[in-house]
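RECORD TYPE: protein structure
NAME: TatD family
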Amino acid sequence: MKLFDAHCHLQDPRIITKAPQLISSAVASGVSAFAVNGVSEKDWNLVKEMGAKYPSVVPCFGIHPWYVAERSPRWFETLKSLFETTPTAAVGEIGLDKGSKGREIDFSEQVTVFRQQLELAKELNKPASVHCVRAFGDLLEILKSVGPFPSGVMLHSYLGSAEMVPEFAKVGAYFSFSGFLMSMSEKKAKKMLKAVPSDRILLETDSPDALPKAELGCLYFVDGDPSLPEKGNSASNEKSNVSSDLMKLPKETLNHPANIHMVLGYVARLLDMKNEELAELSYQNAVRLFSYEGSKMLLERGTGDVSGHNQNH
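PREDICTED:
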């Protein structure tokens, strides 16, 4: 069984030093690819380096709405040149946020920066990984005006309504689900999942965030996680042997990328599917989405322009 983590942040300062162990243990558990998303100019080079070092890492560059105010005057030129030198890269993380954190950032600025990056993704025929919090109406309006997106656009950690799914799907959207889905009522989540076309469903971890709600004995933990007690923070490569309730974990507990298995199990249950069936479906969907010109998915199949980036799994 192969899985594709369609959105994560393995370059995050909280886990960057642990990235080699996290990647190797997740790969050993069945995760064969990770779309690693940058969030600001400060981490784009880290993401680029990870993409060069790990065949399983698909690098993605973008400015996340939380970091819009920190962008430099030449941010867009830097971004465009990165895509020129990194053909394996996709666009992300970009988006809109009207949540508690997003409200601190001028929304018109968010829209301007988002549109520029979205238009660039369309121009380059690359998929974009989109963050959206409490701004789904605005997002749909912009996607309709800039789209459609034949190369796809991914709504990461989607928590929108079931009713909006067909509208987003019409412009080429894929819907990716993480542990955050467990914060939605099961009834609402099931209705929304059932509305998603089967060829548009993806799974992700959003690691190191979005720890799934699960029995502790089923979770993978990040070795040395400062939020965990000493004896419980060394389960990087092993599942925890503690059988207890998740509610005892601090909310800042780091999410290991191998916990995509918990997301798989939850989504499969709500969709009345077998884990293996959803794993295969979501994997194929992710491979299709990330098969743009120069991508590692095409190189893996030997059908792309290798141009010195021939990194096979």
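COMMENT: Residues 90 and 126 are 6 Å apart (CA to CA).
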